[in-house]
Design a protein that fits this description.
The protein is α+β, with helices and mostly antiparallel strands. It folds into two domains: 2-176, Aminotransferase class 4, branched-chain amino acid transferase, N-terminal domain (D-amino Acid Aminotransferase, Chain A, domain 1, 2-Layer Sandwich), CATH 3.30.470.10; 187-346, Alpha-Beta Barrel (D-amino Acid Aminotransferase, Chain A, domain 2), CATH 3.20.10. The protein contains seven helices and 19 strands. It has helices at 72-76, 99-112, 120-133, 216-224, 270-281, 293-297, 333-346; strands at 2-3, 9-10, 42-49, 58-61, 79-81, 84-88, 94-97, 145-154, 166-176, 187-192, 229-233, 241-244, 248-253, 256-259, 285-288, 301-306, 310-319, 322-325, 357-359. Strands 10, 11, 12, 13, 14, 15, 16, 17 and 18 form a nine-stranded mixed sheet that branches. Strands 3, 4, 5, 6, 7, 8, 9 and 19 form an eight-stranded antiparallel sheet that branches. The radius of gyration is 21 Å and the shape is globular.
Amino acid sequence: MSVNKEGQIVQSPYRYGHIGDDAMSDEVDWDSLTFSLTPTDTMYITTTDIDSPWDIGELIPYGDMKMSPAAGVLNYGQGLFEGMKAYRTAEDNIVFFRPEENARRMQRGADRLKMPPVPESIFIDAVEKVVSANKKWIPPMGKGALYVRPLLFGSGPVLGVSPAPSYTFLIYVTPVGPYFKGGMSAINLLISEEYHRAAPGGSGGVKAIGNYAPGMMPSKKAKAKGYAEVIYLDAETHTFIEEVGAANFFCVKDKVLYTPELTGTILPGITRMSIIELARSRGYKVVEEKVSAEFAMAADEAFCCGTAAVISPIASITKGENTATYGDGTPQPITVELYEALTGIQNQTSEDNFSWIHPLPEGI
Protein backbone atom coordinates (compact mmCIF):
# COMPACT_ATOMS: atom_id res chain seq x y z
CA MET A 1 0.00 0.00 0.00
CA SER A 2 1.03 3.64 -0.32
CA VAL A 3 0.03 7.03 1.07
CA ASN A 4 -1.18 9.79 -1.24
CA LYS A 5 -0.58 13.50 -0.83
CA GLU A 6 -3.83 13.88 1.12
CA GLY A 7 -2.58 11.37 3.66
CA GLN A 8 -4.99 8.64 2.53
CA ILE A 9 -3.87 5.01 2.37
CA VAL A 10 -4.08 3.65 -1.16
CA GLN A 11 -3.93 -0.07 -1.91
CA SER A 12 -1.26 -0.93 -4.46
CA PRO A 13 -2.60 -2.73 -7.53
CA TYR A 14 0.30 -5.18 -7.21
CA ARG A 15 0.66 -6.83 -3.81
CA TYR A 16 4.10 -7.53 -2.45
CA GLY A 17 3.37 -11.19 -1.79
CA HIS A 18 2.08 -11.93 -5.27
CA ILE A 19 5.47 -12.95 -6.65
CA GLY A 20 7.72 -12.34 -3.69
CA ASP A 21 8.32 -15.96 -2.71
CA ASP A 22 11.72 -17.49 -2.09
CA ALA A 23 11.63 -19.96 -4.97
CA MET A 24 14.05 -18.98 -7.72
CA SER A 25 12.67 -18.46 -11.20
CA ASP A 26 12.76 -21.44 -13.54
CA GLU A 27 12.57 -19.02 -16.48
CA VAL A 28 16.27 -18.13 -16.35
CA ASP A 29 19.32 -20.15 -17.35
CA TRP A 30 21.52 -18.91 -14.51
CA ASP A 31 24.70 -20.18 -16.20
CA SER A 32 24.05 -18.04 -19.28
CA LEU A 33 23.37 -14.74 -17.50
CA THR A 34 25.36 -11.73 -18.71
CA PHE A 35 25.41 -8.13 -17.54
CA SER A 36 22.30 -7.20 -19.54
CA LEU A 37 18.62 -6.45 -19.03
CA THR A 38 16.19 -9.24 -18.20
CA PRO A 39 12.70 -7.81 -17.51
CA THR A 40 11.39 -8.82 -14.08
CA ASP A 41 7.93 -8.63 -12.52
CA THR A 42 7.73 -5.57 -10.34
CA MET A 43 9.05 -2.03 -9.99
CA TYR A 44 8.65 0.70 -7.38
CA ILE A 45 7.43 4.22 -8.04
CA THR A 46 6.57 7.39 -6.16
CA THR A 47 6.21 11.04 -7.20
CA THR A 48 6.28 14.46 -5.62
CA ASP A 49 6.10 18.16 -6.48
CA ILE A 50 9.23 20.27 -6.24
CA ASP A 51 8.28 21.84 -2.90
CA SER A 52 6.48 18.84 -1.37
CA PRO A 53 7.84 15.99 0.76
CA TRP A 54 8.25 12.51 -0.66
CA ASP A 55 5.59 9.89 0.16
CA ILE A 56 6.11 6.14 0.45
CA GLY A 57 5.58 4.68 -3.01
CA GLU A 58 4.00 1.54 -4.37
CA LEU A 59 4.92 -1.58 -6.28
CA ILE A 60 3.49 -1.87 -9.78
CA PRO A 61 4.06 -4.30 -12.67
CA TYR A 62 7.30 -3.69 -14.53
CA GLY A 63 6.58 -1.99 -17.84
CA ASP A 64 6.56 1.13 -19.95
CA MET A 65 5.53 4.50 -18.53
CA LYS A 66 3.72 7.52 -19.87
CA MET A 67 5.63 10.81 -19.76
CA SER A 68 5.12 14.32 -21.05
CA PRO A 69 7.28 15.16 -24.07
CA ALA A 70 8.17 18.33 -22.14
CA ALA A 71 9.46 16.40 -19.10
CA GLY A 72 12.50 18.00 -17.52
CA VAL A 73 14.53 14.81 -17.82
CA LEU A 74 13.87 14.52 -21.57
CA ASN A 75 14.54 18.15 -22.42
CA TYR A 76 17.25 19.17 -19.96
CA GLY A 77 18.67 15.92 -18.59
CA GLN A 78 17.48 16.55 -15.05
CA GLY A 79 18.03 13.05 -13.74
CA LEU A 80 20.21 10.76 -11.64
CA PHE A 81 20.65 7.03 -11.25
CA GLU A 82 22.28 4.62 -8.84
CA GLY A 83 23.60 1.10 -9.28
CA MET A 84 23.61 -1.52 -6.54
CA LYS A 85 23.13 -5.26 -6.08
CA ALA A 86 21.22 -7.76 -3.97
CA TYR A 87 23.01 -11.08 -3.38
CA ARG A 88 22.15 -14.58 -2.27
CA THR A 89 24.92 -15.50 0.15
CA ALA A 90 26.68 -18.56 1.49
CA GLU A 91 24.40 -18.36 4.54
CA ASP A 92 21.35 -18.43 2.23
CA ASN A 93 20.48 -14.83 3.03
CA ILE A 94 19.53 -12.01 0.69
CA VAL A 95 21.72 -8.99 1.39
CA PHE A 96 22.69 -5.56 0.06
CA PHE A 97 26.09 -3.91 0.17
CA ARG A 98 26.08 -0.48 1.88
CA PRO A 99 22.74 0.73 0.44
CA GLU A 100 22.70 3.74 2.72
CA GLU A 101 25.73 5.06 0.83
CA ASN A 102 23.78 4.90 -2.43
CA ALA A 103 20.95 6.80 -0.77
CA ARG A 104 23.32 9.53 0.45
CA ARG A 105 25.06 9.82 -2.90
CA MET A 106 21.72 10.24 -4.65
CA GLN A 107 20.82 12.97 -2.15
CA ARG A 108 24.03 14.85 -2.96
CA GLY A 109 23.30 14.48 -6.66
CA ALA A 110 19.74 15.73 -6.20
CA ASP A 111 21.05 18.87 -4.51
CA ARG A 112 23.44 19.47 -7.40
CA LEU A 113 20.71 19.06 -10.06
CA LYS A 114 18.07 21.01 -8.08
CA MET A 115 15.78 18.07 -7.38
CA PRO A 116 14.08 17.19 -4.07
CA PRO A 117 16.34 14.61 -2.33
CA VAL A 118 14.73 11.28 -1.47
CA PRO A 119 14.98 10.64 2.30
CA GLU A 120 17.29 7.78 3.18
CA SER A 121 14.48 5.94 4.98
CA ILE A 122 12.25 6.00 1.88
CA PHE A 123 15.17 4.99 -0.37
CA ILE A 124 16.07 1.96 1.79
CA ASP A 125 12.42 0.96 2.23
CA ALA A 126 11.89 1.12 -1.53
CA VAL A 127 14.97 -1.00 -2.28
CA GLU A 128 13.94 -3.62 0.26
CA LYS A 129 10.37 -3.84 -1.06
CA VAL A 130 11.19 -4.10 -4.75
CA VAL A 131 13.86 -6.74 -4.13
CA SER A 132 11.53 -8.71 -1.87
CA ALA A 133 8.87 -8.63 -4.58
CA ASN A 134 11.39 -9.99 -7.11
CA LYS A 135 13.13 -12.60 -4.93
CA LYS A 136 12.72 -15.31 -7.51
CA TRP A 137 14.95 -13.36 -9.91
CA ILE A 138 17.96 -13.33 -7.55
CA PRO A 139 20.57 -15.77 -8.93
CA PRO A 140 22.12 -18.49 -6.77
CA MET A 141 25.38 -17.55 -5.09
CA GLY A 142 28.20 -17.57 -7.61
CA LYS A 143 25.85 -17.21 -10.58
CA GLY A 144 25.41 -13.45 -10.35
CA ALA A 145 23.25 -10.96 -8.47
CA LEU A 146 20.08 -8.91 -8.74
CA TYR A 147 21.10 -5.51 -10.10
CA VAL A 148 19.07 -2.70 -8.52
CA ARG A 149 18.63 0.53 -10.50
CA PRO A 150 17.14 3.52 -8.60
CA LEU A 151 16.26 6.53 -10.77
CA LEU A 152 15.33 10.08 -9.79
CA PHE A 153 14.24 12.49 -12.51
CA GLY A 154 12.23 15.55 -13.41
CA SER A 155 9.04 14.07 -14.84
CA GLY A 156 6.93 17.22 -14.88
CA PRO A 157 6.69 19.39 -18.04
CA VAL A 158 8.87 22.48 -18.28
CA LEU A 159 9.86 24.80 -21.12
CA GLY A 160 12.92 26.89 -20.39
CA VAL A 161 16.02 25.81 -18.50
CA SER A 162 14.63 25.57 -14.99
CA PRO A 163 13.76 22.80 -12.52
CA ALA A 164 10.80 20.62 -13.40
CA PRO A 165 7.62 21.14 -11.35
CA SER A 166 7.37 17.46 -10.33
CA TYR A 167 9.64 14.43 -9.88
CA THR A 168 9.59 10.65 -10.01
CA PHE A 169 11.61 8.20 -7.93
CA LEU A 170 11.64 4.78 -9.57
CA ILE A 171 13.43 1.47 -8.95
CA TYR A 172 13.59 -1.54 -11.23
CA VAL A 173 15.70 -4.67 -10.91
CA THR A 174 17.22 -7.26 -13.24
CA PRO A 175 19.29 -10.42 -12.70
CA VAL A 176 22.85 -10.13 -14.00
CA GLY A 177 25.59 -12.70 -14.33
CA PRO A 178 29.06 -12.50 -12.78
CA TYR A 179 31.26 -9.92 -14.50
CA PHE A 180 34.11 -12.41 -14.87
CA LYS A 181 32.90 -15.53 -16.67
CA GLY A 182 35.28 -18.42 -16.08
CA GLY A 183 37.41 -16.56 -13.55
CA MET A 184 38.97 -13.16 -12.99
CA SER A 185 40.69 -11.80 -16.11
CA ALA A 186 42.80 -8.69 -16.66
CA ILE A 187 41.83 -6.03 -19.22
CA ASN A 188 43.75 -3.76 -21.60
CA LEU A 189 42.99 -0.03 -21.48
CA LEU A 190 43.64 2.97 -23.73
CA ILE A 191 44.24 6.47 -22.41
CA SER A 192 42.07 8.99 -24.24
CA GLU A 193 44.06 12.06 -25.27
CA GLU A 194 41.17 13.62 -27.18
CA TYR A 195 38.09 13.23 -24.96
CA HIS A 196 37.41 14.07 -21.32
CA ARG A 197 34.75 12.84 -18.96
CA ALA A 198 34.17 15.96 -16.85
CA ALA A 199 35.42 19.48 -16.21
CA PRO A 200 35.91 21.41 -12.95
CA GLY A 201 32.69 22.97 -11.74
CA GLY A 202 30.54 20.54 -13.75
CA SER A 203 28.54 17.51 -12.67
CA GLY A 204 31.31 14.91 -12.80
CA GLY A 205 31.11 14.32 -9.06
CA VAL A 206 27.48 13.14 -9.13
CA LYS A 207 25.82 10.24 -10.94
CA ALA A 208 23.95 12.43 -13.43
CA ILE A 209 22.48 10.70 -16.47
CA GLY A 210 24.10 13.28 -18.75
CA ASN A 211 27.58 12.14 -17.73
CA TYR A 212 27.33 8.83 -19.54
CA ALA A 213 26.18 9.32 -23.14
CA PRO A 214 29.28 11.38 -24.11
CA GLY A 215 31.50 8.45 -23.13
CA MET A 216 29.84 5.99 -25.49
CA MET A 217 31.67 7.12 -28.61
CA PRO A 218 35.20 7.15 -27.10
CA SER A 219 34.49 3.76 -25.55
CA LYS A 220 33.32 2.32 -28.85
CA LYS A 221 36.42 3.64 -30.62
CA ALA A 222 38.68 2.06 -28.01
CA LYS A 223 36.89 -1.28 -28.24
CA ALA A 224 37.22 -1.21 -32.03
CA LYS A 225 40.99 -1.11 -31.48
CA GLY A 226 40.88 -4.11 -29.17
CA TYR A 227 40.82 -2.34 -25.79
CA ALA A 228 38.27 -3.02 -23.07
CA GLU A 229 37.72 0.63 -22.17
CA VAL A 230 39.22 4.13 -22.12
CA ILE A 231 41.00 5.95 -19.31
CA TYR A 232 40.09 9.63 -19.03
CA LEU A 233 42.61 12.29 -18.05
CA ASP A 234 41.78 15.58 -16.34
CA ALA A 235 40.39 18.28 -18.61
CA GLU A 236 42.73 21.03 -17.36
CA THR A 237 46.27 19.63 -17.73
CA HIS A 238 45.59 16.39 -19.67
CA THR A 239 48.05 14.76 -17.26
CA PHE A 240 46.24 13.09 -14.38
CA ILE A 241 44.08 9.98 -14.48
CA GLU A 242 40.47 10.50 -13.45
CA GLU A 243 38.29 7.48 -14.29
CA VAL A 244 38.23 4.30 -16.37
CA GLY A 245 35.04 4.59 -18.43
CA ALA A 246 32.51 4.57 -15.60
CA ALA A 247 34.83 3.07 -12.96
CA ASN A 248 37.31 4.38 -10.41
CA PHE A 249 41.06 3.78 -10.80
CA PHE A 250 43.75 2.39 -8.47
CA CYS A 251 47.40 1.52 -8.97
CA VAL A 252 49.91 -0.13 -6.65
CA LYS A 253 53.57 0.85 -6.31
CA ASP A 254 55.86 -0.78 -3.74
CA LYS A 255 52.77 -2.18 -1.96
CA VAL A 256 51.23 1.29 -1.57
CA LEU A 257 47.84 1.93 -3.18
CA TYR A 258 47.23 5.18 -5.06
CA THR A 259 43.87 6.45 -6.28
CA PRO A 260 42.88 9.83 -7.78
CA GLU A 261 41.66 12.23 -5.14
CA LEU A 262 38.06 13.43 -5.33
CA THR A 263 38.20 16.88 -6.87
CA GLY A 264 34.58 17.26 -8.00
CA THR A 265 35.25 15.76 -11.43
CA ILE A 266 35.43 12.13 -10.23
CA LEU A 267 32.46 10.10 -9.01
CA PRO A 268 32.88 9.11 -5.34
CA GLY A 269 32.39 5.39 -5.88
CA ILE A 270 31.07 3.27 -3.03
CA THR A 271 33.29 0.37 -4.11
CA ARG A 272 36.22 2.82 -4.23
CA MET A 273 35.51 3.96 -0.68
CA SER A 274 35.16 0.37 0.51
CA ILE A 275 38.47 -0.69 -1.07
CA ILE A 276 40.25 2.18 0.67
CA GLU A 277 38.83 1.16 4.05
CA LEU A 278 39.46 -2.54 3.43
CA ALA A 279 43.05 -2.06 2.25
CA ARG A 280 43.92 0.13 5.24
CA SER A 281 42.41 -2.45 7.61
CA ARG A 282 44.76 -5.04 6.08
CA GLY A 283 47.83 -2.90 6.71
CA TYR A 284 48.24 -1.25 3.33
CA LYS A 285 48.92 2.45 2.94
CA VAL A 286 46.42 4.15 0.63
CA VAL A 287 47.22 7.55 -0.87
CA GLU A 288 44.49 9.74 -2.35
CA GLU A 289 46.17 12.29 -4.59
CA LYS A 290 46.48 13.29 -8.23
CA VAL A 291 47.85 10.27 -10.12
CA SER A 292 49.68 11.08 -13.34
CA ALA A 293 49.46 8.74 -16.30
CA GLU A 294 53.25 8.50 -16.21
CA PHE A 295 53.22 7.35 -12.57
CA ALA A 296 50.41 4.86 -13.16
CA MET A 297 52.20 3.31 -16.12
CA ALA A 298 55.30 2.76 -13.96
CA ALA A 299 53.32 1.09 -11.16
CA ASP A 300 53.47 -2.59 -10.19
CA GLU A 301 49.72 -3.25 -10.44
CA ALA A 302 46.59 -1.43 -11.54
CA PHE A 303 42.87 -2.08 -11.32
CA CYS A 304 39.55 -0.32 -11.67
CA CYS A 305 36.48 -0.81 -9.54
CA GLY A 306 32.73 -0.37 -9.48
CA THR A 307 29.47 -2.12 -8.69
CA ALA A 308 29.43 -4.29 -11.82
CA ALA A 309 32.81 -6.03 -11.50
CA VAL A 310 33.77 -5.05 -7.94
CA ILE A 311 37.43 -5.06 -9.07
CA SER A 312 38.71 -5.39 -12.66
CA PRO A 313 42.46 -6.14 -12.88
CA ILE A 314 44.31 -4.15 -15.54
CA ALA A 315 46.75 -6.05 -17.74
CA SER A 316 48.09 -3.04 -19.66
CA ILE A 317 47.64 0.67 -20.29
CA THR A 318 48.46 2.25 -23.65
CA LYS A 319 49.13 5.96 -24.12
CA GLY A 320 50.04 6.98 -27.64
CA GLU A 321 52.86 4.72 -28.79
CA ASN A 322 53.72 3.51 -25.29
CA THR A 323 52.25 0.48 -23.52
CA ALA A 324 52.82 -0.49 -19.89
CA THR A 325 52.12 -4.11 -18.91
CA TYR A 326 51.65 -5.13 -15.27
CA GLY A 327 53.50 -8.29 -14.31
CA ASP A 328 52.81 -10.98 -16.87
CA GLY A 329 49.48 -9.43 -17.87
CA THR A 330 47.46 -11.51 -15.41
CA PRO A 331 45.76 -10.36 -12.17
CA GLN A 332 48.44 -9.32 -9.69
CA PRO A 333 48.58 -10.37 -6.01
CA ILE A 334 47.29 -7.30 -4.14
CA THR A 335 44.50 -6.83 -6.67
CA VAL A 336 43.42 -10.47 -6.21
CA GLU A 337 43.69 -10.21 -2.41
CA LEU A 338 41.38 -7.19 -2.28
CA TYR A 339 38.91 -8.72 -4.73
CA GLU A 340 38.65 -11.92 -2.72
CA ALA A 341 38.37 -10.01 0.57
CA LEU A 342 35.61 -7.70 -0.69
CA THR A 343 33.57 -10.41 -2.44
CA GLY A 344 33.99 -12.61 0.63
CA ILE A 345 32.21 -9.98 2.70
CA GLN A 346 29.49 -9.54 0.07
CA ASN A 347 28.92 -13.31 -0.15
CA GLN A 348 29.15 -13.83 3.63
CA THR A 349 32.02 -16.28 3.22
CA SER A 350 34.18 -13.87 5.27
CA GLU A 351 33.37 -11.97 8.43
CA ASP A 352 31.95 -8.47 7.93
CA ASN A 353 33.96 -6.43 10.42
CA PHE A 354 32.72 -3.18 8.91
CA SER A 355 28.94 -3.71 9.19
CA TRP A 356 28.65 -3.18 5.44
CA ILE A 357 26.12 -5.94 4.81
CA HIS A 358 22.44 -4.98 5.01
CA PRO A 359 20.21 -8.07 5.18
CA LEU A 360 16.79 -8.03 3.59
CA PRO A 361 14.40 -7.90 6.57
CA GLU A 362 12.10 -10.86 7.07
CA GLY A 363 8.41 -10.43 6.43
CA ILE A 364 8.59 -7.70 3.79
